Amino acid sequence: MSDYCDLAPGHPFHGPYHDHEYGFPVAGDDALFERLALEINQAGLSWLTVLKKREAFRRAFEGFAIERVAAYGEAERARLLADAGIIRNRRKVDAVIHNASVILELQETHGSFHAWLDHHHPLPHEEWVRRFRRTFRFTGPEIVGEFLMSTGYLPGAHRDDCPVQARILAASPPWTRR
Predict the structure, then answer these.
(1) Which residue from 59, 74, 104, 119 lies 20 to 30 Å from 81 (Cα-Cα)?
(2) Annotated active-site residue in 47, 72, 128, 175
(3) What was the pLDDT predicted at 2?
(4) pTM of the predicted protein model
(5) Rg of the chain over all Cα atoms, to the nearest angstrom
(6) 5 known ligand binder
(7) What's the confidence (pLDDT) of residue 84?
């Protein structure tokens, strides 16, 4: 996303995300779940829309606490679909709730979502897409690619001449440890 390195600096929403999150390794399962949920909700929309709604998403999904979201039933679905602060798309809401349950299963089998990702790293993008499609809902090639790039599992978040790239390399994201 090389043009992101030109667009983001100084922007009130893109700037902080670009400078402090995009491409940096993410270890905590709740933080990984949040990133996956945000990427799912971005489908068909601009990333700026998602970033502007990020705090509302955090409130609506209770800080992306995996166990809490996995336990959501019809009342919580209805609450989410009525929440004008988030993207009210039934398929996306259902996918986020379902994927929380999947992450709980991955925590049982692998210790954590992070460990599951590490277990399968490195894979080429196409293999990641197949694995995600077999495991999660609403995870096509773009969603998977952006999720993995944004969390440090795939390269390409920043251009080599972007000042943030040096900080990312110093953080030793998984893609540098092939």
Answers:
(1) 104
(2) 47
(3) 54
(4) 0.96
(5) 16
(6) yes
(7) 98
